[in-house]
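Late entry, evening session. Most of the bench is empty. Finally got around to the prediction I had been postponing all week. Sequence below, unchanged from the version circulated by S.P.
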Amino acid sequence: MSGTTPQSINGNTLTFAYSNLKPGESNTFLLNTELSNTVLAGTILNSTANVLPVVGDTVPTNNFVECKPLVQASFDPNNKTVEPSGNIGHQDLLKYQINFQNTGTDTAFTVIIRDTISPLLDMSTFHFISASHTLITNIRNGNVLEFRFDQILYLIAISTNLTVMHMCHLKFSHNLDCQSIL
């Protein structure tokens, strides 16, 4: 019944019409849904389905199903360090490292890190140094660095393997634009 439009929608209730279901026959309705990005990992979603009418049904006990899937998501606690740190004065070179780790409940397959760079840094001096995994680097809107890790399949959730720390990183540098400060 893929692609079947509900006969009616009332609040959070969808009604589908189907007739001529013969004894021993079954039918499947596949619903694809999207969640708001505000739904937290670990949330239990509640869905039920009822087949009506039950009058004349030889096995009415199989006309109800309940589904309670657990929302799973990856989560990475990014941190960004810079050397030198503190009061840097007029240091010429700033070296950055971004660390990330998946502490969520599911495997991360693609990781995208976007870093908006201060106007005090000279974007023409951006220099990629290294990363723990293969990545693609882009500069967007003149001052947003985008680091895209595709197919980072072994960045599994810590909750699935507590014995291995799946830490990832990337490093880059910039020259401080002393002209902007003066």
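Two things to note before I forget:
The first helix runs from residue 178 to 181.
Residues 79-181 form a domain with the Immunoglobulin-like fold (CATH 2.60.40.740).
Will write this up properly tomorrow.
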